[in-house]
Design goal:
Number of helices: 11
Distance between the termini: 28 Å
Number of strands: 0
Helix content: over 70%
Strand content: under 5%
Shape: globular
Order of helices and strands: HHHHHHHHHHH
Structural class: mainly alpha
Number of domains: 1
Length: about 260
């Protein structure tokens, strides 16, 4: 029990630090929860619970940059709450066996988003500058895009931030600080609604999830304070290598073992 607790705490510390420095902490925390015996669906729900404080505190930190876009907050809040709930509900109707088969594909998708996220966002931003994105796609398609992203976030947390940045670029935003703030704000709403639904259904492992949560909060804070000492690119490369390895491991376990 002590070794298990230390393992999850360390995973949380690393996950929180990685989130602060480069993103991708879910690639560490989610597999760690599985490794200590938490069933796949509950591990995914518990990972969302562990990530929630980081989203909320990050959004608060960016509030000054988000203020100029406060007219969007009501709509984004409603969309995140409604479709984040839909994603959480979808997670709860799949069995551990079914989710175990889906996890490798979700991990692969999230890792690809992590690797190519900057290129994706640059590509989207270059073709949707100013209000052109809104005119090109139309408000309805933009909302459909956001709805799909929020459903994904309620179902599986990893990679949500990159998808939200792509949405915000498509919506015509270019202020990266405001975009990061809105990304974290929408992520926090999605996670809050999902966690509430998971809690109501008894799908969160509070003990293991809370250990990871403590680690994530401490790791994120310490890393943020010392970010200038660590080359972000090194962390990014390490996360990519680890994410690819874990994806391969999940594919092997789901389809070949």
């Amino acid at each position: 029990m002590i070794i298990e607790t230390l393992f999850l705490l360390i995973a949380g510390l690393l996950g929180g630090a990685v989130n602060s420095l480069a993103g991708g902490g879910s690639f560490i925390v989610f597999p760690a929860l599985l490794a200590v015996g938490v069933p796949p669906v509950i591990a995914n729900a518990s990972n969302t619970y562990a990530a929630l404080p980081g989203y909320a505190s990050g959004a608060y930190g960016y509030w000054h940059a988000m203020v100029k876009y406060k007219d969007r907050l009501v709509l984004y809040t409603i969309m995140a709450a409604v479709f984040g709930y839909v994603g959480a509900e979808l997670l709860l109707v799949v069995s551990d066996e079914q989710f175990g088969l889906v996890v490798p594909w979700l991990m692969a998708f999230a890792v690809l988003l992590f690797i190519f996220g900057n290129q994706i966002n640059g590509f989207v931003a270059a073709r949707s500058g100013g209000r052109r994105g809104m005119k090109l796609l139309g408000s309805g398609l933009l909302l459909l895009f956001l709805a799909g992203v929020c459903v994904y976030g309620g179902f599986f947390n990893a990679g949500l931030g990159i998808l939200l940045l792509a949405f915000l670029a498509t919506a015509g935003m270019s202020d990266i600080h405001a975009m990061n703030g809105l990304k974290l704000y929408v992520s926090a709403v999605v996670a809050l609604v999902a966690v509430a639904r998971f809690a109501f259904s008894g799908s969160i492992d509070w003990y293991h999830g809370s250990i990871a949560l403590v680690g994530v909060v401490i790791g994120g804070y310490v890393a943020a304070k010392n970010a200038h000492r660590i080359p972000t690119q090194w962390i990014r490369y390490a996360v990519i290598v680890y994410g690819v390895f874990m994806t391969g491991y999940f594919f092997w376990g789901a389809y070949f073992s």
